[in-house]
Batch of 3 targets.
Target 1
Amino acid sequence: MEAPLRSSMQRRLVSATSSLILLTSLSCSGLGINVDAGYTSLELSGDLGLTPSAASTLPPQRVDIEEGFGLKDAMSSAYGRVEVEAVIARVVASGFQIDQTGRGALSVQFGDIPLSTPIESSIDMRNLKGEILFDLIDLGPVRISPGIGVDYFDLQLESFSLAVPTLREELDVQAPVPLLFVQAEVDLGYFNLVADIGGMKANVQDIDGTVLDVEVLARFRPLDHVELFAGYRYVSIDAEGIVDGQNYLGDLVLSGFMFGGGIYF
């Protein structure tokens, strides 16, 4: 099933972000660039719910991600982050992809799969985050920059009965969520600490949700133009809506650490 987010809306968001990045690049000089790559390990918790196809007016019943779907393991992924700093603005982009498979037993009904059914589930989640920030306070080593951005989530969940494999449900949601961001940075030259905080409550067509995205990175620079980093990511998604005539809800928390290295100029 596919969430009712129109491709035209995604194209407008991508176009607007691309235009702002291009204008920033053309109008500014004295660029500073950070390019980081590494590894992230993230755990998913919370619950999902989906109404039966024949009873779409009923509220969804919540299925625990870890016990009901059996998705208990930490998920590893490559992680990348690019930050371009100019005179009046900075552009930040990052992304990751995680997936896992697990087995559980439903304590409540999920879609058309009855309660008490042993199931196997697989989840695949991609995230791309983009921000455009403008320096508001710059006191040398301390800087605070508010801005706007987009958190793009692509979530695919598939569950099927172990006894009757043809009895299955799929939840497929693509959501570009506009966010307000603020970035705080302490830069001591050899050591750099950055915190990005973004959040928004949005009602887009048939989807109503709240997203909070917090990322903290500590960078150590042992050599000129070379850096090592370690960080923590926390994403909270509380959303509900309608997919192909069925009500769904999700109350999810994705959290974990990241580390790696990169270059800066």
Target 2
Amino acid sequence: MSSAGVQLRDVLRYLLVVSEPDPVARRVAERWGTPRPTGEHVDGAAVRELSAHALMLRRPGPHVHDERLDRRLPPQLIAEGISLVFPSIHRSEQNLPCLTVHPLGNPGPTAEIGGSPRALSPTDPGLMVALLRRMSERAPAIGLRACYESTHHGPWLGLPSLFVEIGYGHLPDPPDEAVKLLSELLPSIETTAGDRIAVAVGGGHYAPHFTDLAIRRSWAFGHILSRHALVGLDGPTAQSAYRLSPGAEGIVYARAADAGIPAFAGLGPRLRESLAPERSRGGTGGSTDAGRPASGT
């Protein structure tokens, strides 16, 4: 959904990667059926055309361990720098029912859920914020909240990538309403021009502060480094978070104390939240900061 007075920009193609073992990815893809093949293949699987902008690829293994999938894509898709979007289940210690979107990578010295230690993937701030806003508009009607999550797991990829997730608590299967919502949003993600792009630093894992800023104001965030990730963050990893957030003008901090972390010294200006204007048409969804995932995504 575009903000009033902001022109829709042309949406570059993106690739929806369906991990067969993932219950959310599998259920969402079932609603799409078998789209027309493009003639390209990855490891024997057809790349399919889901819409004018969205391609689809099925993968047999877990997405969090599908390392360097970008290198196996058709050369044309690699050359255009296509973004990869992974629909997925969301797991956390609290089993929170929610809809989330987040960039990929491990900012710290461990890699518990795919990827490599201190290795971040490129982000697509425009696609992430577009999904966040659309989900925040529709999530309350199905009893869920939509939020950013901070950067926290693999796979490690060389192309822009993001996960979009359904958390459904203790239910045995993803709720039909949430599956339907994602299946309708993902084939046609409308992005807008005019958002200011930044790296987000500080706050909780579920990024309530940055979620609120992106919904209320024209902010789009690339890498989101939670307060937990700042412990032991080194300079090269902080630099890569900035470099892999294309278009970033600087850094927005959740609190003033976060701006004093040595790893960010000289990386980019500290941006005031008010630099991005209020959006005339915003979502109504909320955010949550309870807990951080212990396993899964």
Target 3
Amino acid sequence: MSGDGHMAEAVVEQPLTIIRGPRVYLVGRQVVDAPTVATFLSDHGVIWKTDTRIPAEQLVEMAGRACYMSYGKGRKTNREFIGHLINVGHGSVLEHAVWSLLFTGVSRSFTHELVRHRHFSYSQLSQRYVDESESPFIEPDAIADDPETHEIWVQSVEAARRAYRALVARLQERFRDVPDATLRRKLARQAARSVLPNATETKIFVTGNARAWRHFIELRGSEHAEVEIRTVALMVLEILRQEAPNLFGDYEVRQLPDGTKVVFTEHVKV
């Protein structure tokens, strides 16, 4: 305990944790209120029955048919209807299908690029409130594959960890007169985080509609995209193609000469 009565926080250094692969969790999807849909159809004297059981695909079809009141008319299957929307680039209708995904094991470099996608909603781990003293770090394969570059990277990360711990301890002492312990820690961590590298692991919750996810997959699944975000884009595609094949089934994954994979579709910028 310090002389002013504040309890000094003990810091026990843990071995460096290195993460070399992200994880993507599908944590939220929509549901359809069938009774209300039935009421709407009855109120307007139309009959409509879709052949898909996937809520996102149902909502996109229902929204698209609302534009022309074409319930029970024209293209019969959901796949045909959505395929037509994609073919003609009527992408706004795809915005009614929404999913929430949680990304972990990703770097701050990754999230700096991800948040450029303005049509997503984000909630990211806060370095002001969360202690990063023992945070894992994301090592790029290009560094991990070579022992010498790996060692340089480890030394740099370890130096940043030591500096962060020292700064947090010193700053908490500096703010010892702040009575609120949570505020005291926040003031220390928000300043000390300035020495943490882009390789610091983070977690980010992302919600977006089908159109936004398609845009992300196309841009970040490209061979021109950075390796880490391309890896995540391919994982997102795998999840959403299983989740809603009529909305994401036009994508294919191709392998480049270097063994890496990229995304391709003939229907870009829907």
